[in-house]
Specification:
Helix content is 72%, strand content 0%. Helix 2 packs across helix 4 and helix 8 packs across helix 11. The protein is elongated, with a radius of gyration of 33 Å. It is built from eleven helices and no strands. The protein has a single domain, classed as Lysozyme (Orthogonal Bundle), CATH 1.10.530.10. The protein is mainly alpha-helical and 246 residues long. The longest helix has 54 residues.
Length: 246
């Protein structure tokens, strides 16, 4: 009898202490309802947070996949244009970095409205595809950019850049193509004068008098770029012809 009484007492105490609602509509019942609502809301918020994080991670993975597929397409386009042969094995790139650089030439050239083969010709003349090339005046990387020019190009992004950043070949191509496109726009599409400006500076290109000694001297740079451009195009045509015959 004592055991049964203790069990009944324990059950009664358990009911009183339980978090369930009370049948008499007391303040405790309201408190329990509010607590349950808060707990439910917290669980809903946690589930929403976990779901949003999963969606964000899924979107990031999809974007990475899309970027990888686009890079592969750009690399294949570079191959079709013969840029892999123009680059040859120079620069000391790993196969993966070589693919990234060739894809960047295509991607950034098209983004700026430039011919990728022309950009490759500029790289050939400027650095012979050496990502660590540095001139005696401080121009750096594949497209031989000056740090002040790079800082000006990146000013709108509030990005900091110095010479060592310009040895990153992909960044160098991004900035170099943007600069060349800007010069073409500034000189109304005159490629010869834009190339002179790329090599010697916009102020010098603007002040040149056609036929002058300085004009003749500075024309050697655009002539070299255009000769390389034609050579790359001929190599591309020869490769396409051999492929068709095979």
């Amino acid at each position: 009898m004592l055991g049964i009484g203790a069990a009944l007492a324990g059950a009664t105490l358990g009911l009183v202490a339980s978090p369930g609602p009370q049948p008499d509509g007391t303040v405790e019942n309201l408190a329990w309802t509010a607590t349950a609502a808060v707990q439910t809301a917290r669980r809903s918020e946690e589930r929403a947070r976990v779901t949003e994080q999963a969606l964000s991670e899924a979107r990031a993975r999809l974007q990475q996949l899309a970027d990888a597929m686009q890079e592969l397409q750009d690399f294949r386009e570079a191959q079709r244009l013969g840029l892999d042969r123009a680059m040859s094995d120079r620069g000391g790139f790993t196969p993966e970095d070589r693919r990234r650089v060739l894809a960047a030439i295509v991607r950034e050239s098209r983004r700026q409205g430039l011919d990728p083969v022309m950009v490759a010709a500029v790289i050939e003349i400027e650095s012979r595809f050496d990502p660590f090339a540095k001139s005696h005046v401080g121009a750096c990387g594949l497209m031989q950019l000056m740090p002040p020019t790079a800082r000006e190009l990146l000013a709108l992004r509030n990005a900091r850049v110095d010479a060592r950043h310009l040895f990153n070949p992909v960044l160098n191509i991004e900035l170099g193509t943007a600069y060349l496109a800007r010069l073409l726009h500034r000189f109304d599409g005159d490629l010869q004068r834009a190339l002179v400006a790329y090599n010697a500076g916009p102020s010098i290109a603007r002040s040149l008098v056609q036929g002058s000694k300085a004009y003749r001297r500075l024309q050697s740079y655009p002539r070299a770029v255009l000769a390389t451009y034609r050579a790359f195009l001929l190599a591309q045509q020869d490769a396409s012809a051999r492929f068709a015959q095979g």
